[in-house]
Design a protein that fits this description.
flat
Length: about 240
């Protein structure tokens, strides 16, 4: 009876409360997801925006574009107003035309608008001029540095290209010497050929290749420090037995 009905109502309230709590939890979770996504997008946009002088250049370009648009419009409007005023002056002086006060009020209002625009342009131009000076100075330094980089890098790149080619030739010679050493085994005088002429030619070629590997100490070894650097570089490309 009564207890059963009360229990039913209590159960229904509990169900509604649980549903409401779950709905609030889902909303809070969605709000957190939206907030995290928004923050991630803002960080991405800020990270992708140019920094330093490039950012300032973008800002200056935007202001300069706005200034040019306003100045062109203002210059045109003032020129047209000057023509209209000059016509009125001519009509009054030469033709004795009666002036229309309403027309004069309209022209005066336009002149006030153009004067305010010119005042704003003067203020805008001062800030633009200062920022342009900063940008031009920084960009001039960038241009000078880039020209210096181009001038310095080209001969260095050509030099390292030739050195790579020389290293390739040297590595091929070293590989041939290593092959001959493997063929000789423990006998350094052993050369596997088919005739005495071949033996003589191969030995001659081998001696010539080995002679080309003799370093020029006057140019390459200028100090103990350079020698240590060369040894360190050799160790960098030498595997120990434990590495094999």
């Amino acid at each position: 009876g009564i207890n059963a009905e009360y229990g039913k109502q209590w159960y229904q309230r509990r169900v509604r409360v649980n549903l409401k709590r779950k709905e609030l939890e889902r909303r809070a979770e969605m709000d957190a997801i939206v907030r995290d996504t928004r923050e991630a997008i803002v960080r991405h946009i800020q990270g992708s925006m140019p920094q330093g002088i490039r950012r300032l250049r973008m800002e200056v370009d935007k202001v300069e574009g706005e200034y040019r648009n306003q100045s062109e419009s203002t210059y045109t409007n003032i020129k047209d107003l000057e023509k209209a005023v000059d016509v009125l002056r001519t009509d009054v002086v030469k033709r004795k035309v009666r002036l229309d006060p309403v027309q004069l009020d309209t022209m005066e209002a336009e002149l006030k608008t153009y004067t305010d625009q010119v005042t704003h342009m003067n203020s805008m131009f001062e800030g633009l001029k200062e920022n342009l000076k900063i940008v031009m100075k920084e960009e001039l330094e960038i241009i000078v540095n880039e020209e210096q980089f181009l001038g310095d890098e080209e001969p260095m790149l050509e030099d390292v290209t030739v050195r790579c080619q020389d290293l390739n030739v040297l590595m091929e010679s070293l590989k041939k010497v290593a092959q001959h050493q493997q063929m000789r085994g423990t006998n350094p005088l052993y050369i596997s050929t088919g005739s005495e002429y071949d033996i003589h030619e191969e030995k001659k070629n081998l001696i010539f290749e080995i002679s080309q590997l003799i370093p020029n100490h006057e140019e390459r070894v200028m100090s103990i420090q350079e020698t240590e650097e060369i040894r360190a570089a050799q160790r960098k490309f030498t595997k120990s037995d434990s590495d094999l």
